[in-house]
C-alpha cells in the first residue's frame, strides 16, 4: 500500500510518501519557524499564506524523492484536525483536489493519531498500548486496545507541556520555540529551585499552569530583590518537575492497564531529559517495550500522517469531497 501523507495543521508544510504504513520513501518538511520567530509564536494568517505558497512544491518534491507518481498511490491521507483552521484548510483542499483529479481515495487523519503512529515507522506496535502524548497543544495519556482505537485516559486541564516550555522560555528571554533551548540549558544546570508538581489526586490528568506561574514568580521575585538566579538552574528545576509528573503518571497507567508497549509522541518527545528519564525507568520494568521516535518524527511531519492514514485506510475509513478542516476534531472519530 502506497500512501501520500499531508500535514498543514500548524507551521510546517509537510508531505510524505509511505509504503505499507512503515517505510518512509520520502518525508519533506518546509518549516515556517523563521517567519514566526519575531512574533514569539505562530501567527495564524502568516501560517496559512506560507502553506498556500509551499504546498504544491512540497507535494512535487515528495513524489520526486520517492520516485513515484499519483497513479502509483492507493490513497491520500491528510490532517483533518485539530489545528489552525486556515492552515488545515490548505492541506485538506490540496488533498481533495488531487483525490478528485486522479480518482485516489481520501482519508482524514487526526493530528495526534499521527503523532502516535510516528512510532510505527520505527517499531512494531504491540497492543494493548499506552501513548504518552506531549506536544505544543496536547498533553495526554492515550490507551489503545488495538490498531486505530483511541481512549484518552487523562489530559491536561490547562496548559500543554510544550506550551509551558515555550512560556517559561519566553520568561527567560529565549527565542521561539523555547522547548529545545530549555532542554539545552537544563542539561547544564542543577535542579536546585523548589517548584510544584500537580498530581491531581491520583488521576491521569495533568496541569502545568501552576508550575509555569511558579517559574515566572521566581524570576520576578529575584529581579525585585536584585538577586541572580542562574537560568540553567531554573530550566533544570522546571524540566525536572515536568518529567517527574509525566513519568510517574505514565508508569502508574502502565501498571493499571497492563500494557505491552509504551510509545512517546509529540514535539516535546524530542526532549533529551524526558527521553533519558523514560529509558532509565523502563529499563527496569519487565515485559513492557518502550518506543521513542527519532527527533525528526517527534515534531510535526507528514510521515506520521501517512503511517496513521495507512491503518485507517486498511480499516476502510474514507473521507468524501465534503471533508473540512476541523480545529476541534476528537481523536475518537477513528474508533
Ligand atoms: P499539537 O501537536 O498539540 O497540535 P504542535 O503541532 O504545535 O501541537 P508539535 O509540533 O508537536 O506541536 O510540538 C511543538 C512543541 O514541542 C513546541 O512547544 C516546542 O517547544 C516543543 N519542543 C520541541 N523540542 C523540544 C525539546 N527538546 N524539549 C521540550 N520541548 C520541545
Ligand atoms: Mg510546529
Ligand atoms: Fe503536532
Summary?
It is built from eleven helices and ten strands. The protein is α/β, with parallel strands linked by helices and 335 residues long.
Would you give an account of this structure?
- It catalyses: L-threonylcarbamoyladenylate + adenosine(37) in tRNA = N(6)-L-threonylcarbamoyladenosine(37) in tRNA + AMP + H(+).
- GO terms for molecular function: iron ion binding; tRNA N(6)-L-threonylcarbamoyladenine synthase activity.
- The protein contains 11 helices and 10 strands.
- 43% of the residues lie in helices and 18% in strands.
- The protein has a 5-stranded mixed β-sheet, sandwiched between helices.
- The chain is globular, with a radius of gyration of 20 Å.
- The longest helix has 27 residues, at 231-257.
- Fe (iii) ion is lined by residues 111, 115, 135, 266-267, 300.
List its salient traits.
10 strands, about 45% helix, KAE1/TsaD, five-stranded mixed sheet, binds magnesium ion, cytoplasm, iron, tRNA N6-adenosine threonylcarbamoyltransferase, tRNA processing, alpha/beta, binds fe (iii) ion, about 325 residues, binds adenosine-5'-triphosphate
The oligomerization state is single chain
Order of helix and strand elements from N to C terminus: EEEHHEHEHEEEHHHHEHEHH
Cofactors and ligands: adenosine-5'-triphosphate, magnesium ion, fe (iii) ion
Q: What's the Cα radius of gyration?
A: 20 Å
Helix content: 40-55%
Distance between the termini: 21 Å
What's the overall geometry? globular
- Poorly predicted runs are none
What is the number of helices?
11
User: How much of the sequence is in beta strands?
Assistant: 15-25%
